[in-house]
Design goal:
The complex is a heterodimer.
Chain A (H helix, E strand, L loop, with lengths): L2 H14 L18 E6 L18 H7 L4 E7 L5 E10 L2 E6 L5 E6 L13 H13 L2 H9 L8 E5 L2 E5 L7 H4 L10 H6 L9 H6 L7 E7 L3 E6 L13 E6 L3 H10 L4 E2 L4 H10 L3 E6 L5 E5 L9 H10 L2 H8 L4 E3 L23 H10 L7 E7 L3 H16 L4 E7 L1 H10 L5 E4 L8 H8 L14 H10 L9 H15 L2 E13 L3 E2 L2 E2 L11 E2 L1
Helix pairs in contact in A: 10-12, 11-13, 15-16, 16-17
Chain B lengths: L1 H31 L4 H6 L5 H10 L6 H13 L5 E2 L4 E2 H36 L4 H15 L2 H15 L24 H7 L3 H38 L2 H8 L4 H38 L5 H10 L3 H29 L8
Antiparallel strand pairs in B: 1-2
Helix pairs in contact in B: 1-13, 5-6, 5-9, 5-11, 6-9, 7-9, 7-11, 8-9, 9-11, 10-11, 11-12, 11-13, 12-13
The chains are: A alpha+beta, B mainly alpha.
Chain lengths: ~550, ~350
């Protein structure tokens, strides 16, 4: 090619790449009456919750496309918001169930109306295969099953085609609710087994992309990193027929773009709205914002007792009296939280959890306590937070830094990237002062204490160790709530948490969703995902 | 032509050590990051035992040397590994995401060239005039406005306030189905399929992000064109051409611009590489399923295979771009030899 020719062709190529400047048309609303467009910030990475590496946003797929033996009921809160009801367990695939007298065996009758997508009936063998899978694949599903005292395949028995039994090493109040969390979902084992391989006996590769379930929705398409689409399973008979025929979930990483989409009306529902946007959208009045406090969840300031001077009770109490609770709630949480300070009782009279701790911002008292601890001049320390949760943790950290400066505690703020956070805070537990946000799926105070106050457990990032707590939690964890010892035990635990404050609660966060006024039936769930089955549109 | 091919071959061979170096460095660097993928992927409630299980399943319990040889062996088979974060093979991810990024980058760059080159030329021919000042303002704005700001501003104006632009939801609006895969470029694929409606929809989605990128790329190109043209216009051969009474167009186009094109082309190569990096933020704002957002989420999760695959593909791309630029330079300018 000659240079001259080349330049010519280049000229043509440039000419052809000029964009035809089209006349823009206004964005037409994609929505029809039975289609819902949802926007979310996160990306799902699997259609199979049991698989290793499946991230939290993917749990919602399991919630919508698979069934479980039982599910939680739904209640309406005082302000009209609907939320799941942790005290009510209702049938799903199980038609009914009986619990043996000693509480160590649960027998479920399977509803003959439960049918997989391919038309075959859901049998006890499918349930057993699915539960075996949940405890055998390890990782998070195994841990969650263990919380319900289910650890080994031998515990699951298919008595006959329609009867399924779970045998337990001890009776536990946690087993039944643990069957309603997303993990023990029921897979069509006949389909899965035909795709199982010797090195992959649980068909994780197949189910990762091709679900085989019985749920009210199917996955119509999944474009990783962009969107996935639920389509209604019209034959689903385990509850009222869902109103939405199709639910399109678009993954939009930028919060500002998500907000623009919902305000413009191109999206119908926006899940997991940051507190600032939730507050402003609510005040805007154009949209409906539905939020409920997340059960059994607290945003806390953790004080690691392994590091001086946090081993000193007086120092921890001094900090609990110095925190700017009100500012944190209004500035970092934008009011989308429930106050957890200013409690009036030193020993609680109820077993409500979480409940306000008996501390208020009182700098004089804080200074006095520091002086008693021999630290009147204050000290220096590091406050770490997770960059992945910077939207509330960064302003909170700055407020704490400012407030503690007033009683002489000098704080260096340390930002830790999301990938390193778990290792540093929860596994190695090496952060002297840090922000933490554990929430328990099973709504019992003793369950919270099990994870966050018992020594060595994952969310006890404070390395807190108290023999009385150890004993109380072990004794109470599996106990029925009707047991006469239950309430006194829980009250004692809470009283110790009040006094020792290895974790100082800042507030109980809200889970907020914003939606068009025409969207109804939104329920706030403990798993923090969208359950499409109840959504309606007018 | 034969010698040219040998030269190209030699040039490609020169790239081998650098690619190998990239393989080693990306491998070591990802492992030197402080995050622990086993902990991350074991999930919310994992205990020590389940973390150990995950570590074993990921092969992270082996020594680095062992892991490296396994990695290289897989690479030779064209296997880049699985991305834990997205749950798909890295190669598949790159194949679907790279065209998305490239399509956007090419169009952004194309827009920038169309605006910047004439602007630079005009500014150079009339230094100190209003065109020159306009050029200066655009260049300053392009350099000083961060891409995510420009992107958000354009969304606010054209989507949110005016409603002219379609919803900023990636490569296609919800209503459309992607055209059958041929090149991965939706514009080209929809034309091949003869689907004008999808083509128009694709273009609509591309306009705002392409303008965002174009504004960013405009500055260096306009600046370089202006400087190179000023140099060329002050040269003796242009003076001679003018003195000989050649038309203004011939002087500008044939004598001045041809010579000024060399530094501009070299700049284009750099700007292109630069744009692929700048893409990350634009992709985030416009929900663009490109390679940048993939790399960022992989980094955050310490997803080794994905990060390594990304770095490797970028390195290969840079090598290719530089090679192409060099080839074009030899075609334009006889002085540039490949045998150096």
């Amino acid at each position: 090619m000659h240079r001259r020719d080349f330049l010519k062709t280049m000229g043509v190529a440039t000419g052809a790449s000029v964009l035809p400047f089209l006349r823009f048309l206004p964005a037409e609303a994609a929505s029809h009456k039975d289609t819902l467009v949802v926007v979310e910030g996160n990306s799902i990475n699997s259609l199979d919750l049991h698989r290793k590496g499946t991230n939290r946003p993917s749990y919602q797929v399991t919630v919508n496309i698979y069934d479980r033996l039982v599910r939680f009921g739904v209640k309406t809160l005082e302000d009209g918001t609907m939320a799941y009801d942790s005290t009510k367990i209702v049938p799903e695939v199980a038609k009914s169930w009986t619990i043996s007298k000693d509480g160590k065996s649960l027998t479920f009758k399977i509803n003959p109306k439960a049918k997989f997508w391919d038309g075959s009936p859901v049998t006890a063998h499918d349930v057993k295969w699915s539960f075996d899978r949940a405890v055998s694949l390890g990782g998070f599903p195994a841990v969650q099953m263990k919380a319900g005292s289910m650890t080994k395949p031998e515990q699951f028995v298919a008595v006959d085609d329609m009867t399924f039994r779970i045998d337990l090493p001890q009776a536990s109040k946690l087993t039944l609710p643990d069957l309603a969390v997303p993990v023990p979902f029921i897979i069509n084992s006949k389909v899965a087994k035909t795709h199982a391989k010797k090195e992959d006996p649980w068909a994780t590769e197949y189910l990762h992309k091709t679900p085989a379930g019985s749920g009210a929705y199917k996955i119509a398409r999944w474009d990783p990193g962009q969107q996935f689409v639920y389509e209604r399973n019209d034959k689903w008979a385990l509850g009222p027929k869902p109103a939405m025929k199709r639910v399109i979930v678009r993954e939009v990483p930028s919060a500002a773009t998500r907000r623009a989409l919902i305000v413009r009306g191109d999206a119908d529902l926006y899940m997991d709205v940051p507190a600032k946007d939730a507050k402003e959208l609510k005040e805007g009045g154009k949209l409906k914002v539905s939020g409920a406090p997340i059960d059994n969840c607290l945003h806390v300031l953790g004080l690691n007792v392994k590091y001086k001077p946090f081993d000193n009770l007086k120092v921890r109490q001094a900090i609990a009296y110095a925190l700017p609770y009100k500012d944190i709630l209004t500035t970092s949480a934008y009011g989308r939280g429930k106050a957890m300070f200013g409690g009036t009782e030193q020993t609680p009279s109820t077993i409500t959890w979480p409940q306000p701790f008996p501390y208020v911002t009182d700098l004089e008292k804080a200074k006095g306590l520091l002086a008693e601890a021999g630290m009147a001049k204050g000290f220096e320390t590091t406050l770490s937070f997770n960059l992945g949760l910077a939207d509330w943790e960064e302003p909170t950290a700055l407020l704490i830094q400012e407030a503690l400066g007033k009683i002489g505690i000098k704080i260096v703020v340390d930002k830790i990237p999301g990938a390193n956070w778990r290792t540093a805070a929860l596994v190695e537990k090496r952060l002297p002062m840090h922000l933490e946000n554990f929430g328990g799926w099973l709504n019992y105070p003793d369950y919270y204490f099990f994870w966050a106050y018992q020594y060595g457990h994952l969310f006890n990032s404070s390395n807190y160790k108290n023999p009385e707590i150890e004993k109380l939690v072990d004794e109470t964890l599996h106990m029925e709530t009707s047991d006469p010892k239950y309430a006194p035990n829980v009250k004692r635990m809470i009283a110790i948490a009040f006094r020792d404050v290895p974790r100082i609660p800042l507030y109980q966060p809200y889970l907020d969703a914003a939606m068009q006024k025409s969207v109804g039936g939104y329920v706030s769930w403990f798993h923090r995902q969208l359950d499409c089955r109840t959504i309606t549109r007018t | 032509m034969g010698t040219k091919l040998i030269q190209i071959g030699r040039r490609l061979l020169q790239a081998v050590p650098s690619v190998f170096g990239v393989v080693v460095i990306s491998f070591v660097l990802t492992r030197a990051l402080p995050g622990d993928p086993a902990v991350y992927f074991a999930g919310a409630m994992a205990d020590a035992q389940s973390i150990a299980q995950v570590r074993k399943a990921l092969g992270l319990d082996r020594s680095w040397i062992e892991q490296f040889f396994i990695y290289c062996g897989n690479l030779l088979h064209g296997d880049l590994g699985m991305s834990l974060n997205t749950g798909r093979p890295v190669l598949e991810e790159l194949m679907t995401r790279l065209p998305a990024s490239l399509e956007l980058t090419f169009i952004g760059l194309g827009l920038a060239i169309i605006v910047a080159v004439p602007l630079g030329v005009l500014a150079a021919t009339r230094p100190g005039s209003w065109v020159d000042h306009l050029c200066r303002i655009l260049v300053t704005a392009g350099v000083s406005l961060p891409t995510f700001f420009t992107g958000l501003f354009l969304i606010y104006l054209f989507y949110y306030l005016l409603g002219w632009a379609p919803s900023p939801l990636g490569r296609l609006d919800i209503l459309y189905v992607p055209p059958p895969h041929v090149t991965g470029f939706f514009t080209i694929d929809s034309l091949i399929a003869g689907d004008m409606e999808t083509f128009v929809a694709t273009i609509k989605q591309l306009i705002l992000p392409a303008i965002t990128l174009g504004l960013f790329a405009l500055a260096p190109i306009a600046r370089m064109t202006r400087a190179a043209m000023l140099g060329a216009l002050a040269s003796e051969y242009v003076r001679t051409a003018r003195a000989n009474g050649l038309s203004r167009f011939t002087v500008l186009g044939t004598y001045a611009f041809r010579n000024a094109a060399l530094p501009v082309l070299t700049t284009l190569g750099m700007v292109f590489s630069f744009l692929l990096g700048a893409n990350v933020l634009v992709e985030k704002v416009f929900s663009w399923p490109g390679i940048g957002s993939f790399a960022i989420s992989a980094l955050v999760a310490s997803d080794y295979a994905a990060v390594q695959g990304f770095v490797l593909s970028m390195a290969l791309l840079f090598v290719a771009v530089n090679l192409i630029i060099d080839l074009i330079l030899t075609l334009i300018d006889p002085r540039v030899g490949m045998d150096v």
